[in-house]
Amino acid sequence: MPEAATELKGVPGEWRLFAVERFASNSAESRVPQVPELPLTGGCLCGGVRFDVREAPVSASYCHCTRCQRRTGTGASAQAHIVPGSLSVTCGEELLRAFEPADGFAKVFCSACGSQLWSRNPQNPAALSVRMGAFDSDSGVRPSVRQFTAYAAEWEPIPDDGLPRHPERRPPDA
Ligand SMILES: [Zn+2]
Ligand SMILES: [Zn+2]
Predict the structure, then answer these.
(1) How many whole angstroms from 50 Cα to the centroid of ligand 1?
(2) How confident is the model at residue 1 (pLDDT cuts 50, 70, 90)?
(3) Which is deepest, 27, 39, 51, 156, by most CB within 10 Å?
(4) Residues 22 and 89 occupy one common structural domain
(5) What is the pLDDT of residues 115-145, one digit of tens each?
(6) Whose atoms come closest to the Cα of 131: which ligand?
(7) How far apart are CA 76 and CA 118, in angstroms?
(8) Is 171 contained in some domain?
(9) In what side-by-side order are the strands of the sheet with 87-91?
């Protein structure tokens, strides 16, 4: 057990404060972006692929397109848009494969376990959008926009979260 937990055992007052802070961080405050500890690390489900992101991601978004529905098996995909060139694969480069549609971004995944890792802009291969679930810890950004909402899954209503909705692709600056 971490030392902190042992210390708190004997100090009920501080423990209660700790519990209150934890509760707060799981509710409204979790929506406030935090400064992430760098480098961010992440990887795939089988652990074969590992990566580092050296700079704080710039923004994040939800995509409701049917390709994201297919590749994730879910209603929408959340991705962090990172500083171009800030990601390094530290392990398992040979496991990476990509689905490269003629008219869109490449979808990079681990060929051993199928985990979705990031998308790659064919016009600018250093510009990657990392699947937020691939990070080991809080990437610090929160999705601020939803795109391709015209194709959203019927079975999962879009949450009433106030985020801007774009029926097609989000504008480059959104
Ligand atoms: Zn894997
Ligand atoms: Zn999509």
Answers:
(1) 9
(2) very low
(3) 51
(4) no
(5) 999 999 999 999 999 999 999 999 999 999 9
(6) 2
(7) 14
(8) no
(9) 40-43, 50-53, 87-91
CA end-to-end span of the chain, whole Å? 43
The bridge status of strand 59-63 relative to strand 143-147 is parallel
Place of tokens 């500083």: 83
Q: Within this chain, do residues 18 and 51 fall inside the same structural domain, yes or no? A: no
Measured CA to CA, the distance from residue 75 to residue 129 in angstroms comes to 18
Residue 174 domain-assigned (yes or no): no
- DSSP state letter for 157: P
Same domain, 47 and 78: yes
- Confirm whether 54 is domain-assigned: yes
CA of 137 to the centre of ligand 1 (A): 18
Residue 132 CA to ligand 2 centre (angstroms): 13
pLDDT in tens, 23-43: 444 455 566 667 889 999 999
For residue 14, pLDDT beyond 60:
no
Put simply, whether the predicted model's pTM sits higher than 0.85 gets the answer: no
Residues 22 and 39 placed together within one structural domain of the fold: no
Count of structural domains, the chain: 2
The residue behind tokens 């015209």 is: 150
* Residue 95: domain span: 35-166
